[in-house]
Amino acid sequence: MTEKGWKKAERRVAELLGTNRVPISGAAPFGKKGDVDLAGYIIDVKTGHRQIPKCVGTWLEAIREIGKVRDELPVLVLQPYRAKERLVVLTFSDFVRLRDVERRLAAEELRAYDRDAALKYASTPVRQ
Question: Are 22 and 32 in contact, with CB atoms under 8 Å apart?
Fold first, then answer.
């Protein structure tokens, strides 16, 4: 039996982040929430061409081109009609880049306390 596309996508995201997929996360009333187990984050993976509007991808690619030229992180902010919160969209590779920066900053803070722990933390591999 072949694996469903959504489950395969969850496994791939977890693999790329160097962590694990959370099985039956949506059905479980207890325990971990989100599809991918990553400390400090709740990650929900969505797939499908009908649910994700094409214009979002187009807008994101346009801002990514500008970001490449300026060497800046491209972030798309969406304001849904009548929604209280805005949505932030970025590509997976940009998320990994942002997380790497966060880890480096955390490692620098740790160096002030424990150089050995900081080196171990900063050298943990993250695949892209």
Answer: yes
Q: Within 10 Å of residue 14's Cβ, how many Cβ atoms?
A: 19
3 state DSSP class of 5:
helix
pTM for this structure?
0.70
> Which residues, 6 or more positions from 114, have their beta carbon under 8 angstroms from its beta carbon?
none
CA distance 98 to 36: 17
- Where on the phi/psi map is residue 119: left (φ > 0), alpha (ψ -120 to 50), or beta? alpha
Contact (CB, 8 A) for 18 and 44:
no
Domain ranges within the chain, ordered by starting residue: 1-48
Kindly report, residue by residue over 15-56, the tens digit of the pLDDT: 999 899 988 766 556 666 788 988 888 888 888 877 788 899
Task: List all residues 6 or more positions away from 126 whose beta carbon is below 8 Å from its beta carbon.
Answer: 17, 18, 96, 99, 100, 103
Beta-bridge mates of residue 88: 77
